[in-house]
């Protein structure tokens, strides 16, 4: 027995079009679209109808950068796959790509299996995995080929965190050469971790222990230097490169230069860099610890370069780097030593709303909102057109969005498993009303109707900008 749902009367917004249209969903997929009021739309028959009059109908968000249950600095990210994907759904995101981690001395396969075990049967929405490569060996390089074949098509390396995830230039080059051969995409945390450790040690020796010094030692120039180096290593290897969480205008300039040269180089930024700044890191007492993440928040005057990069397509994606740690008992591990504050911010629930606020504020257009939050991440990570758009044949991951509703972001009302909001008290316009994942209602008129285990693992094709 096929199940049909019709969504009627809304403004359907994709990366390429805006049209008042009705949508027919059948068996979890988009079956048809037709302009509202036309005979084709009137002919849709369905057991269930959603009235979207006066609302936007948009594709579910694709968040290509999350860290659920991630071990870091002697603790774990506070969102599980169950709580984190539920919060994502509340915020209009219907697919995440999380990071499985290779342990030093361990196989990629062991790390991937461990993350499958964490996620399976627990997710409210669909999910995929990238692989963090923290130990480049001959075996690791061979395993990369096998992972690409089974739908794990992107690999993250770190120029930061010596002794934890860090890879040196030789290891990075080898992995990039492997990716050049197997079609994988190297994702890079581009900060000069060796130099940063020296500056951190010197700051602590001077008694500079407060959270704001986290930002001061992780200098914008060291992000730009590492970004430049990553680009040139990728060029030598003949490999594509995706630079994660770009925060500094100097790093944006490196990406723009590489793209002007025609190199297959891509960049993402995150809402925290667009809406927060070093002013937050400098909040009195130990409050600044709530905003410690890497790359760090920058002075407010960097934001204009990030917005411009999003408009000119020198930055293509906004992901969250969602990696929450509670203030109480987790962020507090760094009292008296900023280098011991777990790095990461909660945000998986806020991304779609904050980017809609950017539309309201005139930073980006409605279609660009959908492009950077849905369509481009889906293409970047081999999920399009199954995810990231509203078109016949696509998964029915659909959000009914009220562009006029006002809300105040707060830890009191969010659904992330963390005891603070990075955007506490911020008033924004626009709110998710109903969320469908493969045709099933996960959020229904602001009520959670989803379930753990609805979300399924989704293997990915290679980056669709390289075909």
Note down, in words, how this protein is organized.
This protein is of the alpha/beta class and 467 residues long. The protein is built from 14 helices and 19 strands. The longest helix has 18 residues, at 220-237.
Helix and strand arrangement:
Blueprint: E1 4-13, E2 18-26, E3 29-35, H1 39-42, E4 48-51, E5 56-59, E6 61-66, E7 71-72, E8 75-76, H2 81-90, E9 93-101, H3 108-119, E10 126-132, H4 138-149, E11 154-158, H5 169-182, E12 185-189, H6 193-205, H7 212-217, H8 220-237, E13 241-243, H9 249-260, E14 265-269, H10 271-275, H11 278-281, H12 303-312, E15 317-318, H13 351-360, H14 366-380, E16 398-408, E17 427-437, E18 440-444, E19 447-448
Parallel strand pairs: 1-4, 1-5, 6-9, 9-10, 10-11, 11-12, 12-13, 13-14, 14-15
Antiparallel strand pairs: 1-2, 2-3, 5-16, 7-8, 16-17, 17-18, 18-19
Helix pairs in contact: 4-5, 5-8, 8-9
Please supply descriptive tags for the structure shown above:
about 475 residues; alpha/beta; 9-stranded mixed beta sheet; 8-stranded parallel beta sheet
- Counting DSSP H or I runs of 4 or more residues, the number of helices is 14
* Envelope shape: globular
Oligomer: single chain
Radius of gyration: 21 Å
Poorly predicted spans:
none
Beta content comes to 15-25%
Instruction: Find the count of extended strands (DSSP E, 2+ residues).
Output: 19
Mean pLDDT: 97
**What structural class do the secondary elements suggest?**
alpha/beta
Largest sheet: 9 strands, mixed
- What proportion of the residues is helical, as a percent range? 25-40%
Distance between the termini: 38 Å
């Amino acid at each position: 027995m096929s199940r049909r749902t019709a969504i009627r009367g809304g403004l359907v917004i994709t990366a390429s079009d805006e049209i008042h249209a009705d949508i027919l969903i059948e068996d979890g997929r988009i079956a048809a679209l037709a302009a509202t009021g036309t005979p084709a739309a009137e002919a849709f028959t369905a057991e269930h109808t959603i009235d979207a009059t006066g609302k936007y109908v948009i594709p579910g968000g694709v968040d290509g950068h999350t860290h659920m249950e991630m071990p870091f600095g002697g603790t774990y990210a506070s969102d599980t796959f169950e709580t984190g994907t539920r919060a994502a759904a509340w915020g209009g995101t219907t697919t995440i790509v999380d990071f499985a981690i290779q342990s030093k001395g361990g196989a990629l396969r062991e790390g991937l299996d461990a993350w499958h075990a964490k996620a399976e049967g627990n997710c409210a929405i669909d999910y995929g995995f990238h692989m963090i490569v923290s130990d480049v060996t001959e075996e690791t390089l061979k395993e990369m080929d096998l992972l690409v074949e089974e739908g794990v098509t992107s690999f993250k390396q770190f120029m930061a965190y010596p002794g934890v995830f860090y890879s040196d230039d030789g290891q990075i080059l080898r992995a990039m050469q492997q990716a050049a051969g197997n079609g994988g995409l190297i994702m890079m945390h581009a900060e000069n971790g060796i130099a940063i450790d020296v500056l951190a040690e010197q700051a602590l020796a001077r008694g500079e222990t407060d959270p704001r010094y986290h930002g001061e030692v992780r200098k914008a120039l060291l992000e730009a230097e590492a970004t430049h180096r990553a680009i040139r290593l990728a060029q030598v290897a003949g490999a594509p490169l995706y630079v994660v969480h770009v925060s500094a205008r100097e790093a944006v300039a490196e990406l723009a230069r590489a793209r002007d040269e025609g190199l297959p180089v891509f960049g993402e930024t995150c809402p925290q860099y667009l809406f927060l700044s070093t002013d937050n890191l400098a909040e009195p007492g130990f409050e600044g610890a709530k905003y410690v993440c890497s790359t760090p928040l920058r002075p407010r005057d960097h934001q204009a370069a990030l917005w411009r990069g999003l408009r000119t397509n020198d930055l293509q994606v906004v992901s969250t780097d969602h990696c929450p740690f509670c203030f109480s008992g987790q962020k507090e591990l760094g009292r008296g030593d900023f280098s011991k504050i777990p790095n990461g911010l909660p945000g998986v629930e806020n991304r779609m709303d904050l980017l809609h606020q950017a539309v309201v504020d005139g930073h980006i257009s409605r279609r660009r909102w959908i492009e950077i939050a849905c369509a481009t991440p889906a293409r970047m990570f081999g999920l399009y057109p199954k995810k990231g758009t509203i078109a016949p044949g696509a998964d029915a991951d659909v959000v009914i969005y009220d562009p006029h509703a006002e809300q105040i972001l707060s830890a009191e009302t969010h659904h992330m498993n963390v005891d603070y909001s990075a955007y506490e008290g911020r008033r924004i316009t626009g709110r998710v009303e109903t969320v469908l994942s493969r045709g099933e209602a996960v959020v229904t008129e602001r009520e959670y109707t989803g379930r753990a285990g609805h979300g399924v693992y989704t293997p990915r094709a290679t980056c669709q900008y390289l075909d």
